[in-house]
Amino acid sequence: MAPQRFHEQFDQIQRSLPDVPLAMGPDDSAEFIYEKGVVLARDGEEAQVVEDAVRSHFTATEGLVPDQVRRAGPHTNRSGITRIRVGDPGEGGRAADHAVAGALRALRETEGRAGRRLVSRNHVVSIAVNACPGDEPVPVARTEQPNPAPAPAAEDPGGRVGVLVIDTGLTHDYRSYPLLARTRGDVQVRETDDEGVLQQYVGHGTFIAGLVAAVAPHTDVTVRGTLNDAGAILESEFGERLFDAVEDGWPDIISLSAGTSNGRLDGLLGVAAFMEELRVHDTLLVAAAGNNASAAPFWPAAYASSPDHADAVLSVGALRGDGEFGACFSNHGPWVKVYAPGERLVSALTGFDTPVPYVYQHSTYETCRYGFTYSCTCRSPRHTGVLSEAQQTPPGKPDQVMFEGLASWSGTSFATPVAAGLVAAHMTENRVGDPRAAARELLAVHADFAEVRGAHVPALLPPTWRPVPVGPS
Fold it and tell me: pLDDT (tens digit, 9 = 90+) per residue, 390-448?
């Protein structure tokens, strides 16, 4: 992990959720973020079991207050999850964290007898460049081509594949980008601050939509603003928002560049109901593996390794610029089923109509934060950022750039729509109606191979993608 950047982003996420006291876990390590003083349980009898067990444990444990254990408001949403307050975040110090840990301990024996998890932290789910970003967007001249370049637009075969991007929404000028002429969806509410400077992660959904459209031109792309402008949402709300995104119908493919690790191997309580619903539909969920350079499962992508969901979920890691090895930041492990280019891709951002300024949030490093020796996005291109300056003062003032439409950006967030687009294109070109069957065929017949942490892994490389030099390695 790279704790400096994670801590910088923790502060940013906390500012985006001002009414939700947050903590890092486990034990202040930079692995995941969660709500202080609250745990999750399934609605109904299980929630009552959790309440009773926690209250009993707190009664017998010095320093824990049983009277604080209660439901945190009514709960009627489709995710079937109840928030249970077990501590007062306003007490300060580590009291609320201690209460959450105590609640988890209180259910261990009961969970063992039940054979499944009954209680969980309320994790923060964030876009996969958020908690530990691959990098920040870099302006690209209007004269340059997207990468991947637009696939040749053969005659429209009809029966277009539908791809739903669940992300941060679209920038106001996205239709000025020709590839997005047929894209529709939610427009971001607030793109700039009071001084007209682009806010962090604005354009994330637009960039992703541009990648899908480039790889699979005969595709109907819809972008939903499921995540707030900072790209972060509580697990207790995330499942409901996923259901909202498919309320008008389940698409062929969902491209999801968000998630969290949780220190466990059994998924997220907050999305369990959605994942069960996914099983009975024909939709393929293509999900980002995350940017923690870790083998720890990142959810929902890691459902790809679950026997119950393996056919419905395709987890995607990122390759570095040359496509031969894994990107330094990419999560990895047997739960990551395929890798795609995810470093220094070029797609639409904003500024097509009027150039938009952006101030970098993170400073680059002298060396790769994960120990790699190639010229990765950790250290190039050089810039000084606002959030890094707050943590430790680097030389110089934060750098400002201007976006005029296109950007270069890196992360498993962007490898994911590349893979989703390739599945969509395979469906169109081969008249395959089932996206899950198309994904299986694509991996079995058309996958290349790359090396990630010493392992040879399947890799999907778009025909129009251009490798980017990576420097010495």
Answer: 655 555 688 999 999 999 999 999 999 999 999 999 999 999 999 999 999 999 999 99
Q: Mapped to the 3 state alphabet, what secondary structure does the chain carry? A: CCHHHHHHHHHHHHHHCCCCCEEEECCCCCCEEEEEEEEEEECCHHHHHHHHHHHHHHHCCCCCCHHHCEECCCCCCCCCEEEEECCCHHHCCCHHHHHHHHHHHHCHHHHHHHCCCCCEEEEEEEECCCCCCCCCCEEECCCCCCECCCCCCCCCCCCCEEEEEECCCECCCHHHCHHHCCCEECECCCCECCCCCECCCCCHHHHHHHHHHHHCCCEEEEEECCCCCCCEEEHHHHHHHHHHHCCCCCCCEEEECEEECCCCCCCCHHHHHHHHHHHCCCCEEEEECCCCCCCCCCECHHHHHCCCCCCCEEEEEEECCCCCEECCCCCCCCCCCEEEECCCEEEECCCCCCCEEEECCCCCCCCCCCCCCCCCCCCCCCCCCHHHHHHCCCCCCCCEEEECCEEEECCHHHHHHHHHHHHHHHHHHHCCCCHHHHHHHHHHHHCEEEEECCEEEEECCCCCCCCCCCCCC
- Give every residue of the chain whose pLDDT is below 70, as ranges: 1-3, 28, 73-76, 90-94, 128-134, 154-158, 229-230, 389-396, 473
Interatomic CA distance for residues 347 and 26, integer angstroms: 36
Q: What is the pLDDT of residue 94?
A: 67
Nearest CA among 288, 338, 297 for reference residue 447: 338
Residue type, 208: I
Task: Answer yes or no: pTM beyond 0.85.
Answer: yes
- Residue 330 is predicted with a pLDDT of 95
The strand pair at 455-459 and 448-452 is best described as antiparallel
To the nearest whole number, what is the mean pLDDT of the chain? 90
Sign of CA dihedral 170, 175, 181, 185: positive
pLDDT of residue 180: 96
